Amino acid sequence: MFAGKYILSPMVRVGGLPFRLTCLDYGADLVYAEEVIAQRLLKCTKIFNETLGTVDFLDEDGGVCFRTTSKESDKVIFQMGVSDPDVAAQAAQMIEHYVAGIDVNMGCPKDYSIKGNMGAALLTQPQLIKKILCKLISVCSKPVTCKIRILESEEETLSLCKEIESTGVAALAVHGRTRYTRSSHPCNYDIIQKIKSVVSIPVILNGASLDINNRSDMTAVMKKTGVDSIMIARAAWYNPSVFRDPEPVSVREAVQKFMKYCIDYECPLHILKYTIGKFRGAFKDNQSSLEVTRHIETRLIYDYFGLGDYYSEVASKRTGDIQEEFQKKKR
Ligand code: FNR
Is the same domain home to 205 and 259? Predict the structure, then answer.
């Protein structure tokens, strides 16, 4: 499942359902969803959303914490942020039927993760890592993976990877930067190549976006390092059709596909704006980028990308559905 794969890396806010489906349409083999903190998932209510054809995990305030659909169920990996093995197990049991695998984020350097003893805070606690992964593997019917960053020394990094391998994880994704390395600095390919030579589970290389403009660039990085698969974040954010063989489509075309999914799956406007804000070349110039993202009226944003009519059509149908439901309830 994790060999020879071109994979979308998890991205908070960006990696929701519309973005994942866009990447899959363009040739991504697997898509990691944005990190969800396990404790948050445990407080969610699961509903089957008949209007959208999705399974939704809703926060207490009714907001969507995680939304998925059968279109992606054999391709989507649910990533959790967690520091407690039992909490990890409970979260995995809640979600596993709707996803293809479960991943633990062991690379996030952000304050909230470190303070919660999650993400990159785990990297220096191999015993805790092992407890979390072993527990997950023992309860979960789907493959379990983890995503790490490298440590300061090669020795520590290789030793950590061997410990992780010993838990029985299905694959190991490695971001070739330490928790202190800026994302504008080069990815350390040498250490990932060494990791590949000391473990026998599939190794997924991550962190190469600065060197990637198309699918053959991804293939070249895989060949150069000998890894099993590659996982990309920013290069996909700049243009999600980067997965397409042999060449990406124009960013405008990719934006349109993404926005159609945003309409289909009711992506919140602030997420849509945040996501398209980084698509490279989506706007005619900086001025129009500002003009469009400043809009507060949804229809105007869709109009700019030629999807105003599609938006109105879907919105009026939904209003119809809601009206019908309302009338039924009144009867
Ligand atoms: C990330 N990254 C990230 N990593 C992770 O494990 N879980 C997450 O939820 C997120 N969220 C996230 C959001 C955004 C906006 C960015 C840009 C990045 C890190 C990401 O998955 C990846 O490890 C790094 O970006 C390095 O890979 P690239 O960008 O060089 O392909």
Answer: no
Instruction: Determine whether the shortest distance from the Cβ of 107 to ligand 1 is under 6 A.
Output: yes
> Is residue 191 within 6 Å of ligand 1 at its C-beta?
no
Residues 254 and 276: beta-carbon distance below 8 Å: no
234 lines ligand 1 (CB under 6 A): yes
> Last residue of some domain: 243, 268, 291?
243
Mutate to test the pocket of ligand 1, among 6, 12, 112, 113 (most ligand atoms within 8 A of CB): 12
DSSP code for 211 = G
Helix (H, G, I), strand (E, B) or coil at 272: helix
Q: Are residues 264 and 280 in the same domain?
A: yes
Last residue within a domain, chosen from 186, 210, 243: 243
Q: 172 and 131: one domain? A: yes
ipTM greater than 0.95: yes
Average pLDDT, the chain: 94
Peptide bond into 10 cis (omega under 30): no
Known catalytic membership, residue 262: no
For residue 54, the CA-to-ligand 1 centroid distance in Å is: 25
My answer on whether 195 and 311 are in the same domain is: no
In this model, does residue 81 exceed pLDDT 90? yes
Which entry of 23, 44, 108, 262 is annotated as an active-site residue?
108
Model confidence pLDDT, tens digit, residues 308-318? 999 999 989 88
Closest CA to 140 of 101, 194, 179: 101
Phi, psi torsion values for 177, nearest 5 degrees: -140, 155
As a whole number of angstroms, the distance between CA 233 and CA 209 comes to: 7
pLDDT tens for each residue of 280-306:
888 777 666 766 777 667 788 888 889
Phi, psi of 204 (to 5 degrees): -105, 120
134 CA to centre of ligand 1 in angstroms: 25
Host domain of residue 325? 251-330
Which tokens belong to 142?
A: 């789907």
* The token pair that represents 220 in the structure block: 């070249």
